[in-house]
């Protein structure tokens, strides 16, 4: 199962979001975090989580706005 988390300038809330997904009882997860060109510290926070949990993949792209 994959969980996709879109991210754009949410440094104050992204840790809570990621930790909420990690606390789920279902452990066979792929967590894809798509950073849409954040200008705050969001990307760095996401990378820290990815470095500590191999289920997390972070993709950083130039800002494209709402999908």
From TrEMBL:
Record bears the keyword Glycosyltransferase: yes
InterPro entries to which the protein is assigned, alphabetical: Glyco_trans_2-like, Nucleotide-diphossugar_trans
CDD domains attached to this UniProt entry: Glyco_tranf_GTA_type (cd00761)
Alphabetical list of Gene3D superfamilies matching this protein: Spore Coat Polysaccharide Biosynthesis Protein SpsA, Chain A (3.90.550.10)
Protein name: Glycosyltransferase
Bilayer-crossing regions: none
Domain of life: Bacteria
Keywords: Glycosyltransferase, Transferase
PANTHER family named among the record's database cross-references: GLYCOSYLTRANSFERASE, GLYCOSYLTRANSFERASE EPSH-RELATED
UniProt organism field: Ruminococcus bromii
Pfam families assigned: Glycos_transf_2 (PF00535)
Ranges for domain Glycosyltransferase 2-like: 2-66
Keyword Nucleotide-binding: no
């Amino acid at each position: 199962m994959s969980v996709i988390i879109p991210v754009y300038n949410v440094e104050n809330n992204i840790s809570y979001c990621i930790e909420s997904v990690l606390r789920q009882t279902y452990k066979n997860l792929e967590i894809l975090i798509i950073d849409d060109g954040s200008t705050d510290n969001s990307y760095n926070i996401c990378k820290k989580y990815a470095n500590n949990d191999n289920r997390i993949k972070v993709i950083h792209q130039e800002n494209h706005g709402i999908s």
